[in-house]
Amino acid sequence: MKRLTEQDYYNLLDISPKASFGEVRSAYDQAMSIYSTDSISTYTLFTQKERKLILSRLAEAYKTLTNSKLRKEYDHFLIERGELSPQEIGFSSLEDSTIAKGKLLDVSAESLTQKQQEVKDERLPSDRNLDLFGSQISVTGKSIKMVRKTKEISLEEIYKKTNIPQETLQSIEEERFEKLPALVYLKGFLKTYAKILQVNQTEMVEGYVKRYLEWKNTYQK
Amino acid sequence: MIEQGQINKPRVVNNHIIAIGGGKGGTGKSLITASIGICLADRGNSVLLIDADLGTANLHTFLGLEPPKLGLSDFVSNKESAISGVITKAGINNLKLISGAKDMIGIANLSYGQKAKVLNNIKKLNYRYILLDLGPGTSFNILDFFLISHCGILITSPEPTSIENTYRFTKGLLFRYLRKIISKKVVRSLIDNGIRQRNGHKFESLFDLLETIETIEPGLGDNISSYLSTLDIKLIVNQVRTRKDRAIGQKMAIAAKKYFGIPIDFLGNISHDNTLRKGLLQQKPLMAYLPHSKAFKELTEITQKISPRYQLGLGFPTD
């Protein structure tokens, strides 16, 4: 049993990894009618925070699974983690080029307006650097990890002090962007993390968010 | 080839106890209990209705009966030594009733000993179906009656507050169940604390609890979720009017499965029906007007779905 927000996109939408784009779409519509804020069938079942997470996760699932390139990458990612076997996948990518360019993307754009707005409002900051014992290094997941290792702080310690799940911290360091929470939460986490590492908070948050948004703009648009 | 008469009779549970509950009053629990009872009896099953909605019992009203002289409280208070002594006729073949009409004591106020006595004696009764009308609320006693049953049916109306209470009831049920099946002291007190803080809401979700449990005792969390998946909980949405109303039940079932990890079986919708209200106002017995109502067909279909649980491979030898 897994939390809704931790289930992979296929499980979240209750579809087979072979599902066609049409099936992904109707599964998404069905899911939205269940989990959206005004849905009566889940009235008070979730806290606001939970619901927000579920909805952003659903939007990600929809975007990924209706874009053949992203979907291939995601499948690959699941296979690497041993959660999917290569035989299980096999949707037709032909369908993709015809449908995804047309109606499907419109629909996703519509339901994602809010999310995209968020991204658009985000002006990309210039390169940021972290100060490590006097020398400037650019902010990446790797460099954050390096700073942490140099300062001999374990993920567990950070978790104990901040309550940020170790898995999230790890995802930040390994730049597994698809695993990261919504931007608002991510920023908060990074700020706290920077505080623990005793590095410049603005530098670290903005530098990392820039990388995150670059990824997001490349893969999720 | 299988010869006639050689097929083993399908195995069924001897008595099948069905609890009917749900968080809110006024969702039609008693009406549905009585109706399902009538439908099951009509198909030749021996059926016992137990009005455990103590304090505000009115199953007898639906059956068109005067308040019976003896009721569940007479057994609880030892006025009647055997539970069979408080069973009364219900005016229909195959249907019997244990009334709660005269009971002034609410079910929530039964002592532990009284509750255990009632539960144990219900389990021993020899009826094909025993339907427990539990009444509203999420007190421990109600949850316990629900949990001793073979299956539990939640009744909700399409109103937001009713749905809210249905989820609250389910949450309460799960926490109560866990509290009772886990022997480890640390975990029990963890759940107790959770319950004390606003009905288990200290843990925002069941997962928070399971995760905490898992850190205390690795492996236990998984074990618990496998227990939870065995719970047989069903759902009926009553008083539906619109197409939108009709879609709610299935969605609730999906959300609950995804969220609580327990399969909630959506049995069906029952239409809002003025015939039923009118009949009740005229103080006629339910069987006089039920067959003429829109809801009757829906109730019949629902009854078929909760009918006997035969052995999976019908006729497969069991020895």
Question: How would you portray this structure in words?
Answer:
The complex is a heterodimer of chains A (221) and B (319). Chain A is mainly α. Chain A has two domains: 4-119, DnaJ domain (Helix Hairpins, Orthogonal Bundle); 129-219, lambda repressor-like DNA-binding domains (434 Repressor (Amino-terminal Domain), Orthogonal Bundle), CATH 1.10.260. Helices cover 63% and strands 4% of the residues of chain A. Chain A has a two-stranded antiparallel sheet. In chain A, strand 1 and strand 2 form a beta hairpin. In chain A, helix 2 runs antiparallel to helix 3, helix 5 (93-111) packs across helix 6 (113-121) and helix 10 (183-197) runs antiparallel to helix 11 (201-219). In chain A, 27% of the residues are buried. By secondary structure, chain B is of the alpha/beta class. In chain B, strand 7, helix 10 and strand 8 (264-271) form a beta-alpha-beta unit. The chains are: A mainly alpha (221), B alpha/beta (319). Chain A binds chain B through residues 1, 3-4, 7, 14, 33-35, 39-47, 49-50, and chain B through 158, 160, 163-164, 167-168, 204-205, 207, 210, 222, 225, 228-229, 244, 247-249, 251-252, 254-256, 258-259, 261.
* Main beta-sheet strand count, sense and barrel state of chain A: 2 strands, antiparallel
Q: Which structural category fits the helices and strands of chain A? A: mainly alpha
Shape of chain B: globular
- The separation of the N and C termini of chain A measures 31 Å
What order do the helices and strands of chain B follow? EHEHHEEHEHEHHHHEHEHHH
Oligomeric state of the chains?
Answer: heterodimer
Number of domains of chain A: 2
Shape of chain A: globular
Main beta-sheet strand count, sense and barrel state of chain B: 8 strands, mixed
Low-confidence stretches of chain B: 1-12, 310-314
Helix share of residues of chain B?
40-55%
